Amino acid sequence: MDKLLILDYGSQTTQLIGRRIREFGVFSEILPGNTQITDELLTGVKGIILSGSPHSVNDADSPEPDHRIFELAAAGLPVLGICYGLQRMTQLHGGSVQASDHREFGRSRIRYNETHPLFAGIPESFVSWMSHGDSIIQAGEGFRVVAESENGIPACLAAPDKNMVGIQFHPEVSHCEHGLEILKNFALNICQARAEWSLDRILDDITEDIRRTTDGKPVLLLISGGVDSTVVAGLLLRALDPELVHLMYIDTGLMRLNETDEVVRTLESLGATHIHVVDARDRFLNPLEGVSDPEEKRRIIGDAFIEIQQHEVTARGIPEHAFLAQGTLYTDLIESGKGVGKHAAVIKSHHNVGSPLVIEKREAGLVIEPLASLYKDEVRAIGTKIGISDAVVHRHPFPGPGLAIRIPGQITREKIAILQQADDIYIRELKARGLYDEIWQAFAVLLPVRSVGVAGDAREYGYVLALRAIISRDGMTADVYPMPWDHLLEISARITNQVRQVGRVVYDVSSKPPATIEWE
Ligand SMILES: Nc1ncnc2c1ncn2[C@@H]1O[C@H](COP(=O)(O)OP(=O)(O)OP(=O)(O)O)[C@@H](O)[C@H]1O
Ligand SMILES: O=c1[nH]c(=O)c2[nH+]cn([C@@H]3O[C@H](COP(=O)(O)O)[C@@H](O)[C@H]3O)c2[nH]1
Ligand SMILES: NC(=O)CC[C@H](N)C(=O)O
Ligand SMILES: [Mg+2]
């Protein structure tokens, strides 16, 4: 398949470049910015994009591309530099880049004063989106300034003889006018890449790949009922004889109301025969009794997951040589260090389901990850295509530790039951009011606080419930969902009327950062 290679220097928007390009049907792959470009890597590659970066090209150890890229460009392989990518290109060709007094962040009108295929079909002047402190002071050898910003700063430079072009702005950001057209012009016209990426094509490839890799051996999938693992289940059942597919769901006792029944129904509807529902409620809840420290709770849950998996795989006679399937996404891989961006600090230890099992299987070459080249929205589209219900496909993410991290402080079975009920009302109301799909994630949190109220003329001493609803792209940052006031009031009244133990409802208006999405 034809593809574009994106070299990542750690920009916040590198991922977006990739998905925008896929949006018009060209396959793209993101690699660390300093990757050595071998002939093997170049198979199918029709063009290269150098991303932006938090670094400055003038920093001592800022990342650099393999210089072979420029030889390849001169020989006919187009290269596009975005922001830092352009600055690097300029500097490596004898130009100069310096920190400028006039930094440009956000919207900036630019104008091009000569035609370039990158701007084909685009008005001479439009509003771009910028995010830079350094600017090009002197063009590199063979480069010409094609466009400037309203501040007189070079916005596009091109070296047509060398097949290189660079832009100071970010076409991948949705606020950049004509951004998609610019990327399209580069991919389809300048690189002549064929738009061969389609869901049907990917579905065929994945199916074929699952069959070839597993080669008649059984497969085990740990399934949570979330989008990713459910889509993997659907893909496995479609590609293989269902007799070979073992699905294991662990009921932690910390799931949402009726979740276990729903998961089982979904799996049955997908044609699964080996559904292992592990009732592990006591094995999670007993050791959690009396524990209030968030990290301690997470550790106990993580350990329980691991222990239960190991034990159940043996107890249920799942063959030792079975493959382990996982719902790893493209973003998971990049975030876990395939990129060169700075590593995030550990804010919370996300439960790592099955590490010893995963490690052991990985070492034996027995792990398959059919979604590893896909973004979440593509996974959703595939889910729909293979007949997974909208209810599952559009479900908000749910964390492995479940309700445990939505009950700050000590967890009791009573509190879990209260939260399940309140959360269920909240989510059902959001759906009924047409708000659910506008929100990236919504849930209720049962606070370890009681407050005085009055009901039927008598004193009540009930729990306080916090409602949370956020909008996000990937969970890394989040904005508060501006819940329409009348909806909020009505939902609050529903909850306090129907869940006796809840006496008061509050709405969480904190973004991430500084808060996180979950409360623990
Ligand atoms: N209760 C559970 N039983 C079995 N496996 C689980 C359970 N909870 C989590 N897992 C495993 O952990 C993996 C990671 O969970 P994660 O929440 O990131 O993904 P997901 O649940 O598939 O999708 P989503 O992000 O939409 O919730 C799951 O894909 C699944 O394999
Ligand atoms: O599978 C998971 N295991 C975990 O331990 C975990 N902790 C948080 N989350 C989810 O991750 C996203 C970001 O959450 P935070 O802002 O609270 O860190 C949100 O979508 C959270 O629901 C988890 N998911
Ligand atoms: N977005 C970018 O690539 C910024 C590049 C460089 N850090 C600058 O500030 O100019
Ligand atoms: Mg989940």
From TrEMBL:
<feature type="domain" description="GMPS ATP-PPase">
    <location>
        <begin position="197"/>
        <end position="395"/>
    </location>
</feature>
<dbReference type="GO" id="GO:0004066">
    <property type="term" value="F:asparagine synthase (glutamine-hydrolyzing) activity"/>
</dbReference>
<dbReference type="InterPro" id="IPR001674">
    <property type="entry name" value="GMP_synth_C"/>
</dbReference>
<dbReference type="InterPro" id="IPR029062">
    <property type="entry name" value="Class_I_gatase-like"/>
</dbReference>
<dbReference type="GO" id="GO:0005829">
    <property type="term" value="C:cytosol"/>
</dbReference>
<feature type="active site">
    <location>
        <position position="172"/>
    </location>
</feature>
<feature type="binding site">
    <location>
        <begin position="224"/>
        <end position="230"/>
    </location>
    <ligand>
        <name>ATP</name>
    </ligand>
</feature>
<dbReference type="GO" id="GO:0005524">
    <property type="term" value="F:ATP binding"/>
</dbReference>
<protein>
    <recommendedName>
        <fullName>GMP synthase [glutamine-hydrolyzing]</fullName>
        <ecNumber>6.3.5.2</ecNumber>
    </recommendedName>
</protein>
<dbReference type="InterPro" id="IPR022955">
    <property type="entry name" value="GMP_synthase"/>
</dbReference>
<dbReference type="InterPro" id="IPR001962">
    <property type="entry name" value="Asn_synthase"/>
</dbReference>
<dbReference type="InterPro" id="IPR004739">
    <property type="entry name" value="GMP_synth_GATase"/>
</dbReference>
<dbReference type="InterPro" id="IPR025777">
    <property type="entry name" value="GMPS_ATP_PPase_dom"/>
</dbReference>
<keyword id="KW-0547">Nucleotide-binding</keyword>
<keyword id="KW-0332">GMP biosynthesis</keyword>
<comment type="function">
    <text>Catalyzes the synthesis of GMP from XMP.</text>
</comment>
<keyword id="KW-0315">Glutamine amidotransferase</keyword>
<dbReference type="Pfam" id="PF00117">
    <property type="entry name" value="GATase"/>
</dbReference>
<dbReference type="InterPro" id="IPR017926">
    <property type="entry name" value="GATASE"/>
</dbReference>
<feature type="active site">
    <location>
        <position position="170"/>
    </location>
</feature>
<comment type="subunit">
    <text>Homodimer.</text>
</comment>
<keyword id="KW-0658">Purine biosynthesis</keyword>
<dbReference type="GO" id="GO:0006529">
    <property type="term" value="P:asparagine biosynthetic process"/>
</dbReference>
<dbReference type="Pfam" id="PF00958">
    <property type="entry name" value="GMP_synt_C"/>
</dbReference>
<keyword id="KW-0436">Ligase</keyword>
<dbReference type="Pfam" id="PF00733">
    <property type="entry name" value="Asn_synthase"/>
</dbReference>
<dbReference type="InterPro" id="IPR014729">
    <property type="entry name" value="Rossmann-like_a/b/a_fold"/>
</dbReference>
<keyword id="KW-0067">ATP-binding</keyword>
<feature type="active site" description="Nucleophile">
    <location>
        <position position="83"/>
    </location>
</feature>
<comment type="pathway">
    <text>Purine metabolism; GMP biosynthesis; GMP from XMP (L-Gln route): step 1/1.</text>
</comment>
<dbReference type="GO" id="GO:0003921">
    <property type="term" value="F:GMP synthase activity"/>
</dbReference>
